[in-house]
UniProtKB/TrEMBL annotation:
Keywords: DNA-binding. It comes from the Bacteria. This is XRE family transcriptional regulator. It holds the Pfam family HTH_3. Residues 17-71 form the HTH cro/C1-type domain. The keyword Glycoprotein does not apply. CDD domains: HTH_XRE. The keyword Metal-binding does not apply. It comes from Paenibacillus oralis. PANTHER family: HTH-TYPE TRANSCRIPTIONAL REGULATOR, METHYLPHOSPHONATE SYNTHASE. GO terms for cellular component: cytosol. The lineage of its organism: Bacteria, Bacillati, Bacillota, Bacilli, Bacillales.
Amino acid sequence: MENHNKPKELLAFGRVLRELRKENQMTQDQLSLFSRVDRSYISELENGEKAPSLLTIISLTKALHISLAAFFKRFEDEMKL
């Protein structure tokens, strides 16, 4: 699926997730291990192909050492771009 067909919210979420993962110097495999979220699903999230559940977001933010509030602030900022 091309980016112009994907909801901007999913694309913004994916960009923030990828940025945080890289800031934490993690591969998708490492994030998968620490969050217990499948690596292929992380890839789909980063590419704006899937919408995560709240429980998935909580697992990812814990693994990335960021609070939900801080994560959603970054998401909100990304949505303004």
